[in-house]
Amino acid sequence: MAKRSSLSIRIVEGKNLPAKDILETAKALNIEAPQGARLGQQQHTGSSDPYCIVKVDNEPIIRTATVWKTLCPFWGEEYEVHLPPTFHSVAFYVMDEDALSRDDVIGKVCLTRDTLAAHPKGFSGWAHLTEVDPDEEVQGEIHLRLEVVPGTRACRLRCSVLEARDLAPKDRNGASDPFVRVRYNGRTQETSVVVNVQRLWAAQREEGWFRLQPDQSKSRREEGHLGSLQLEVRLRDETVLPSSCYQPLVQLLCREVKLGHQGPGQLISLIEETTSTECRQEVATTLLKLFLGQGLAKDFLDLLFQLELSRTCEANTLFRSNSLASKSMESFLKTEAEVLEQSAQTLRAHLGALLSALSRSVRACPAVVRATFRQLFRRVRERFPSAQDENVPFIAVTSFLCLRFVSPAILAPKLFHLRERHADARTSRTLLLLAKAVQNVGNMDTPASRAKETWMEPLQPTVRQGVAQLKDFITKLVDIQEKDELDLQRALSLQAPPVKEGPLFIHRTKGKGPLTSSSFKKLHFSLTTEALSFAKTPSSKKSTLIKLANIRAAEKVEEKSFGSSHVMQAIYTDDSGRLQTAYLQCKCVNELNQWLSALRKVCINNTGLLGSYHPGVFRGDKWSCCHQRDKTDLGCNKTRSWVTLQEWNDPLDHDLEAQLIYRHLLGVEAALREKHRQLSTGPEASRGPTGPGEAPGDPLAELFQVLGDLQEAHRSSPAGSPPSEPSRILELQT
């Protein structure tokens, strides 16, 4: 049993931000700003170059793209982060990028874990940016021992300050010189810990780690003067039971998928009917992941195709609604990393070149995707066999391939990881026209689509040629036999596809020489499920740097060690069992966190993972972070192996997907019971019991039993008790 926490984050847009460029340019040129000139007065005459940094417990994990020359930026970027259940807060810093000096902090929005937990459907809306005072940017924990010592006249409170960890760097070199002041029932100081003194009196002694909190007593300027940030943030906490608890649910769902459209209860169909539109995408994604893990993704999608075809009478409305089939297929296409990589090549050209490249990419498409499109094509042709509907099977495929995959990637290449930055206004307009053109080709250039997009008349020859190319591409795409599919899947399984690859800088002296940024050499790295390898170029022969089974931790390196905040370390054991460290430098914070996330995910089941590490380096005769003189001493900071970014090609977590399906089914149980009552009194109720080897006649009754068993298992799982409220204050100033 394990507790899992994840944050779904969407950074939407900002508005009414203060102008920073005018003042910053004057500052860089040593020009004094006019008397009385303040940010609020400059916002109509200047601009800013805003981007966002997301920190979890003061640890930067996300950086958005910069939106240039605007006070109302739109980002629209989405992330999902897996975190330890013990995190305290997530903060969004709006920054102004400056080429001449250090980037400025415009303001921040901070959401505590308690705030997010109070919004089960997620926090969504505008939040005012607040000032950021560097002196109040407090982080870390302090280890205290508190005792009540009886005396002849009165009791005394003894406080032993033992150690601290994860403190914020306050010096320019990335370090701090911390000290502690203790006050009892005095005025609030800069950094404080709240202690329940009444409980301490009863226990006589209390010891543990206490989180440092910033001072809240300073006066604040009026809210809104720094602008606002629109966010969507949802916290999900799950208690995941052992795999055996979910087996009955998984087996029941798999049996229904294997039975297909002929199943007696059509459990998948009932799940769709009782699922609201707002959560259909989430349910579709979870079901798809569950069946991917069971090797039944194609069968699951085929069942959804049949269900939608059975209730569709008009060919022109096929797969155009937000049905479970549409949402599941959309998630399926995003899950296949190879398709994304192929699209990255085809989307760099204009319509003619794009379609030509697409038509040549048949064999680059994963076998399971080709097999799924084959099933879709065949089912639609069976449902609409007349000559007047000869284009309908092609349109069914393009409704997913073009409308829900290629066109969205063209419109927002940054969100599909095809570009590092958002496109400028002129490029965005070009991409919009290109996406519309692709959709028109995908619609097989029907008169209706031509009437809607009259501006495309000059493109008609290219569109007509594109329709022929696309039909030829789809014909080849779906022309795959079962044997070919198995051979392709077997060939792919023999390879170790890269989890992540790209250029990194490796420290050539491995910590033995001078520790400067010039000591790094640029190489092309490739991470698979077997090893971290490198080569001089992407096409060169690769050499193994570290076997994945030998990695013990992947963590950041503090900025002062190499003069860069984008350096990570991979701690591993060599052939003799001794710990070694490889230092790798990334080009930005996003690349750093993506590499750390990828390394942590592929090593999560390694034996001997470290619980602590040194964020500094061993220089001379001591560690730069904690000044310990023994190189083999335990680390002075906790490892963060559970902090990872979710990607489309993440390894599947079967137990978590089953838990999410269970939780959803529990929420719609009342609606399912009503459906069960209707079925029990309808014509199906007259059917007799099934014979040996046949499917049981009442899958819903089985489902209710499975849900009841899982509810009981969750009730039996241990649960922590909330902490008591404090009555008096013990304060420390660091």
Tell me about this structure:
By secondary structure, the protein is of the alpha+beta class. It folds into four domains: 2-137 and 219-234, Immunoglobulin-like, CATH 2.60.40.150; 141-209, no CATH class; 337-493, Orthogonal Bundle (GTPase Activation - p120GAP, domain 1), CATH 1.10.506.10; 500-645, PH-domain like (Roll). Helix 7 packs across helix 9 (324-335), helix 11 (351-359) runs parallel beside helix 16 and helix 12 (367-383) runs antiparallel to helix 17 (482-494). Mean pLDDT is 78; it is low at 24-45, 187-192, 337-349, 511-515, 687-695 and 720-734. Residues 279-443 form the Ras-GAP domain.
Shape: globular
The tally of strands reads 27
Helix vs. strand class: alpha+beta
User: What is the CATH fold-level name of the largest domain?
Assistant: GTPase Activation - p120GAP, domain 1
How many domains?
Answer: 4
* N- to C-terminal distance: 38 Å
Oligomer description: single chain
Question: Helicity level, as a percent range?
Answer: 25-40%
Low-pLDDT parts are 24-45, 187-192, 337-349, 511-515, 687-695, 720-734
Give the C-level CATH assignment of the largest domain. Answer: Mainly Alpha
What would CATH call the homologous superfamily of the largest domain? GTPase Activation - p120gap, domain 1
Largest sheet: 7 strands, antiparallel
Rg from Cα = 29 Å
Spatial sequence of strands, sheet with the most strands: 18-17-16-15-21-20-19
Counted by DSSP, the helix tally is: 22
CATH architecture of the largest domain: Orthogonal Bundle
Strand content: 15-25%
Can you give the mean pLDDT? Answer: 78
Keywords: GTPase activation, Metal-binding, Repeat, Zinc, Zinc-finger
InterPro entries: C2_dom (IPR000008), C2_domain_sf (IPR035892), PH-like_dom_sf (IPR011993), PH_domain (IPR001849), Ras_GTPase (IPR039360), RASA4_PH (IPR037777), RasGAP_CS (IPR023152), RasGAP_dom (IPR001936)
Pfam families: BTK, C2, PH, RasGAP
GO molecular function, one term: GTPase activator activity
